[in-house]
Amino acid sequence: MKPLLVIAGEASGDLHGAEILRELRARVPGLRILGAGGDLMTPLLDRKLADVKDLAVVGFVEVLKHVPGLLRLKADILRAAREEGVGAALLIDYPGFNFSLAQALRAAIPGIRLHHYVCPQVWAWKAGRIPKWGRTLDTLYCLFDFEPALFAGLPVEALWVGNPLVEAVKPEVDRATFFREAGLDPSRKLVALLPGSRRSELDRLLAPLVDTVLGWDGPPVQWVLPVAPTLDPASLDLRGAPIRTVLNRSYAARACADAALVCSGTATLETALLGTPFAIIYKLSPLTYLAAKRFVRIPRFGLANVVAGRSVVPELLQGEVNPVRLREELKRLLDPVRAGAMRTELAEIRAHLGAPGAAGRVAEHLASKLA
User: Fold this and answer.
1) What is the pLDDT of residues 71-90, one digit of tens each?
2) Counted domains in the chain
3) Which residues does UniProt assign to the signal peptide (predicted)?
4) Sequence-ordered strand ranges (E) for the chain
């Protein structure tokens, strides 16, 4: 059996890759695997070509600065793939680099089978790339049930394998433990604030959230802010607002909350799975927002709403992210009747994410395609 090349370009890909490779090792114990990954994938690789820290570059300016290094890395991967005589590649997320690598592998190694895990969000932007992806790849493993239909009529086998969040999203501790650890009163209503994990998101979202708390004129509540592992709690300027910060308790904070304000992104899908009524918030720089309006072609920007196919959760974008509007929305979310209705709708989103066992399904299909 020919070796398998596996490339993960960031921390989330390293996590997904490790889960898939463990399942694959159990099914094909003698398979030789080489590639790029992080600490989780490394023990599962026979030959490590690069680390995720060599690949994980975000932002237009940062990518430009790292282009020479990324080109060298791609050349090194291609050279190793030819030396090893790989018969297939599993490219995990990280679409910018991995699609370019897929095209290069297709040209350099006749007959190679190319498999990609995580459908790029072409349904939101650059839909014109769908045919290119569909003609370059052999298999595309999709996390959302609506994605395979986008590739109908193209040679790629687009498969819905389910979303690993179904297994990953669960409170870190029970309710009593969480309230005790955080120094919160379990008899009072709780609001969770999630301003994002990137510094740029905090710079735009934290201040209006703090102002919302400082000027709160609704029913009595207490406030909690789960701090992302990438951030230092001491760096958050809360200006004396009565907000408790917690570490390593992001899921528990939301699961225990009566309502939440959540930065757009994967966190909105996580919050939907936890069943907490919430509103999605996001602010871009004016120039980025104008550019995004030209390319984004979907009526809803929140991932939870995209997956649901309708507006289940309120979305506040740009100028709507202000204390007056946020307080107004929070009061609605805390209303028992509205909250109950939203919880029912949030429960329906889980059905769009599939059953547990996504990694096993990918490994099972991939094993059947190895030669």
Assistant:
1) 888 999 999 999 999 999 99
2) 2
3) none
4) 4-8, 33-37, 47-51, 88-92, 113-117, 139-142, 157-160, 190-194, 222-227, 243-247, 259-263, 278-282, 315-317
